[in-house]
Specification:
16% strand, 20 helices, globular, pyruvate-formate lyase- activating enzyme, Rossmann fold, six-stranded parallel β-sheet, 510 residues
Length: 510
């Protein structure tokens, strides 16, 4: 039996780790097993041609909302060219509404629902033993002469029963992805999770042993997918402590954390981290109590804000603050307030605006009518409007999100923006909204890829803004601040080229 495990890369990096887990539980089976990932810019035709050269008996394709259309196209081509080849899909995108998906895509023979390791192991074992009692395999959907059968989800996998996914696959030395737990304590309305979301975590000793592997290989960055990593404060403390005490001077770590659970002891510990060693993503969602209640979060955001403020004042870690646009009961006005509070909380750290999607399996999708949501019916299921924000307001928030990401998403213009706010007295959201309008009106959307052009855009925007101040000196000082920010982001040679061209924006597409 020849089996290919594959996917098409997207912004969802979880697929890489999920493929590694599948490979690790199947690699000792008496089969010919291959694992391959295709680039997001490869054509469906090229991917199809590559797969067909392997003469596989079974092709497993891992899906998410970004690659489902292309994977479906590739799967259809495979089935038409080789009807005897089994086509199997997996991933959260096909784990919900599975029957409808298989009905609409008759070229898909099997679907692995939810956590796939046990399902795939039982399926391959059954095929090798010529035991085709698929009705006994929880988590599997398949076809019979009578139609489509969708079995219930399998029981949640105990993490300690899974092998280390990098034992059998090379990690590389760039960014690697890791999970020390499955399940989630974040039951937000727009989050996707399986019906049984109980948390199952690896033991602390095993986590530290596996992290030692990455440290020994001088991996640049380890990204934890856990949501939330600090569901147990004592466990999180001990893992943070191990990372800090065993620093190799190279490897950094990124975690998604619940700001409510950041206790004083952990904050004091994080003060000992090497600068740049640890990054914490703190998802606030909103600062409005009614919105927080509707999305399934705690209604009092002030404890979270206090904890994060203390972390940034006393700690030595990088913090990313995340809010979302279009949550239940969030209006354009309350969203602006949430943004302004989050900006103040970030205090120079990166701030991100998350866009909402009505993913399959989410409460948002199931209760869309209740909250007045209208969303796209095809992946990626983007929210178009809500009961409290019109499509125009959602689009405006999306444009502001792009501008925020470009100018402060990575902490880039961390001195220039505060200076402009101080000089003009504008509120943060109004400033970014005005900047997004300026970029659109001037046709500069295609000039937002390079830091040099971002600096020019910001200065050109400020020129019009500062005219009302009738203070040329403030504009000259801002020019110096923008240039200083730019010097911290690009090389000396690039600065020389910037100075040669000057502050004028070349609007021609390069």
């Amino acid at each position: 039996m020849r089996l290919l495990l594959t996917t098409i890369n997207t912004n969802n990096k979880r697929s890489d780790l999920e493929l590694r887990y599948l490979y690790s539980v199947l690699c000792d089976a008496p089969i010919e097993l291959e694992m391959r990932r295709y680039g997001r810019f490869e054509t469906s035709s090229d991917i199809y041609e590559s797969i067909m050269q392997g003469y596989y008996d079974l092709v497993y394709l891992h899906t998410d909302r970004e690659n489902i259309h292309q994977i479906a196209a590739v799967a259809q081509m495979i089935k038409k060219a080789s009807p005897e080849t089994g086509v199997m899909l997996g991933g959260m995108e096909v784990s919900f509404e599975t029957h409808d998906f298989m009905r609409d895509n008759p070229f898909v023979d099997y679907v692995v629902r939810g956590e796939g390791e046990t399902v795939m192991y039982n399926f391959v074992k059954g095929v090798l033993e010529m035991n085709y009692r698929f009705e006994t395999m929880a988590g599997l959907a398949y076809r019979t002469q009578d139609g489509i059968v969708v079995n219930p989800f399998d029981d949640p996998i105990e993490m300690n029963e899974l092998p280390f996914p990098y034992d059998k696959t090379e990690s590389g030395r760039g960014t690697v992805y890791y999970e020390s737990m499955r399940g989630t304590s974040d039951r937000s309305i727009h989050r996707q999770y399986l019906p049984d979301p109980r948390i199952r975590s690896l033991g602390i000793n095993r986590v530290c042993t596996e992290l030692r592997y990455f440290l020994a290989k001088d991996v640049e960055k380890v990204v934890f997918f856990d949501r939330w990593f600090n569901f147990n404060s004592e466990r999180a403390y001990r893992i943070f402590e191990y990372i800090i005490n065993n620093d190799n001077g190279i490897t950094s770590f990124e975690f998604n954390v619940n700001g409510d659970n950041l206790d004083d002891e952990t904050i004091r510990l994080l003060a000992d981290a090497r600068k740049g060693q640890i990054r914490l993503n703190v998802d606030i969602g909103s600062t409005n109590a009614e919105v927080l209640a509707a999305m399934g979060r705690r209604e009092n955001v002030y404890q979270l804000m206090y904890n994060v403020t203390k972390l940034m004042n006393e700690g030595n870690v990088d913090v990313d603050i995340i809010i979302a646009a279009g949550l239940p009961y969030e209006t354009d006005t309350t969203f602006a307030r949430s943004f302004n509070k989050a900006y103040g909380l970030a205090n120079g750290m990166p701030l991100h605006i998350e866009q909402l999607y009505a993913d399959k399996g989410t409460t948002l999708r199931k209760q869309a009518e209740r909250y007045g949501y209208i969303h796209s019916d095809v992946a990626p299921y983007e929210v178009i409007s809500s009961g409290h924000m019109s499509s125009a307001q959602i689009l405006r928030a999306k444009k502001v999100s792009k501008v925020v990401e470009a100018f402060i998403g990575d902490g880039g213009f961390g001195e220039s923006i505060p200076r402009m706010l101080n000089d003009t007295g504008a509120r943060p959201y109004e400033l970014f909204k005005s900047l997004s309008v300026f970029i659109t009106d001037e046709g500069l959307e295609n000039k937002m890829m390079r830091k040099e052009d971002l600096a020019r855009i910001l200065y050109a925007f400020a020129e019009g803004l500062y005219k009302e101040l009738s203070d040329a000196g403030k504009l000259e000082m801002l020019e110096d601040v923008i240039r200083t920010d730019l010097e911290n982001m690009i090389s000396v040679d690039e600065i020389k080229r910037f100075d040669k061209q000057g502050w004028t924006i070349n609007k021609k597409t390069e």
